[in-house]
Structures are given as structure tokens and as C-alpha cells.
């Protein structure tokens, strides 16, 4: 009981530290964000790679503002695993994000080195490197002027794209019941191509780097139910601070239900089910408290997670961490 009390204290103090940074005016931003981010922490922190005792493959899809033409939609496929008998974790991912005529595709490889602080406490340091492709599909521009002939010098007559590198780093501290992560998964700014100047596809501005802080705990409600509250905070020096608070309740039979609240007055209902020790599925329904301003447009997200044991014996580790 004392250990769980200490874990709660760590999480509360971390959450207070995170929320104290959100006093600035909150607003939306263009970074890709999945509602139930705990399903795929490799995307926000390379140091998470190999932090589980099994290999995990995750596949997710997020559709924002259903019914709105050109609304954001994101997809990701990732995998990570520890290397047996070595303090190393590796991972990889490929993702796609579309907003109207803008399309971004990224491929990254992760490396994490694990430092054993004590018998059950580990600090991981991670690096990632990859490439990002950005495309502007001018051929898909729709005009509503019946007299428009297509001869507008401000609208290129072809699709344009570029490919440029990017890098990231992170740190991840974990115990059996608590975790705390800090990361900057994109150190460079990948710009969309300009027809007049293809060379300005990459830039480095420290004030434009987005930093992420993620923390969570596992709490035993009783012998069959666990609660897993967590918080994600992310911001750059030139932007406002964004947060996402998530809490899920999971039964030993594999059924989970929870809710999320994030900046911009968004809320979601999260559900999930683990068919067995290897395969799990989760779904999130998201909407906004501010329907008068945003309209009654819902968002949907689905994730599949598959775990592969690296040893002959089965594992019973939960999927929260």
C-alpha cells in the first residue's frame, strides 16, 4: 500500500509540474497527435523502444472531424523490441498524415540504450533518424467559380513534393508502476515544398522544436481492476502549451474503458479489448465541448496491437507500459 501511495505522489507531482506550464492561452497546433497516445508511445519518444519484455507491433488510424472535406487523417505502423541479453531496444515506424491537399509521410528507425538504476528501475536514452516526404497536391484543388479556367499564376499546375531528413531524441524512466518520459522527436522543421524554391525544405530553429513530457501510473483498484491515469504535455518555445489527460480502467478479462481530455476543449471515450496475451484492439470516439464554435463533428480512432514473446515462457505484463 505504501508503494502505491508513493507512486500516486510521484504522478501527482509530475502532473502539477506539467499543468503549471499550461497557463498560457491554449490553442490547436499542426503536430500529429493520436487520441490514445499510450497505444503507440514509440511515435513520441524513441527511448520507449524495447522497454517491454516482448516485441510489439502497432497499427493505428485516426480520422478527424468526420464529414468535413479535407479534414486531417493519420495512419501509423510501428514496431519495437528489446534485444535479448543486451541493454538495447530498437524500433521503426512509418506514418502518413493528410490535411486537404497537404500530405506528409515519414519513416524512422529508433535506438534506445537502457541503464539499470536498480533491480526494477530503468532509464532509457533514445535516438531516432529518418526521412520525411511532404507533398502539395495542387491537382486536387477544387474551385467553386464556374468561370475559372485554371490559368491562375498563384496555383501551380502540378503536384510538388520533397524529401528531407529529420532526427529526434528522448529519455524514458520506468518502474513497474510509474513512468516518466521527455523527448523531442523532431529536431528539424520539414517545410512543405514551394514551386519557386525547392531548397528550403528543411530548417533548424530551436524555438520551433516541440518537446514532449509524458507520465503515468498503474493503480490497483482491486484484485481485478487496474486504473492507468496518464498525462501528455507538448509545446515549443514559440507556441502555446498543449496537454492530453487520459485515464483507463482495465479488467483482468481484457476489457478496458476510459476517457481523455485535451486542450482545445476536446473529450473522448476510449474502449478496448485484449483477445489474448498477444492481440488487442482499441477504439476512441472524440468530440468537443465547444459544438457551437466547431460544429457537431466527431473524430474516430482505432488501434491494433500485437505482441510477440521473445522467450518460450509466456508473459503477463500489461500493455500500459
Observed structural traits:
disordered C terminus; 321 residues; 14-stranded antiparallel beta barrel; mainly beta; globular; two-stranded antiparallel sheet; Porin
Overall mean pLDDT: 83
Summed up, the domain count is 1
The percent of residues in helical segments reads: under 10%
For the secondary structure, the number of strands is 17
Short characterization:
The chain is mainly beta and 321 residues long.
Explain what this protein looks like in three dimensions:
Helix content is 7%, strand content 49%. With 321 residues, the chain is mainly β. It has a single domain, classed as monomeric porin ompg (Porin, Beta Barrel), CATH 2.40.160. Strands 1-2-3-4-5-6-7-10-12-13-14-15-16-17 form a 14-stranded antiparallel β-barrel. The chain is globular.
Task: Outline the fold blueprint.
Blueprint: H1 2-19, E1 54-63, E2 73-82, E3 88-99, E4 102-116, E5 122-136, E6 160-174, E7 178-184, E8 189-190, E9 202-203, E10 211-217, E11 219-220, E12 225-235, E13 242-251, E14 255-262, E15 266-274, E16 279-288, H2 291-294, E17 299-309
Antiparallel strand pairs: 1-2, 1-17, 2-3, 3-4, 4-5, 5-6, 6-7, 7-10, 8-9, 10-12, 11-12, 12-13, 13-14, 14-15, 15-16, 16-17
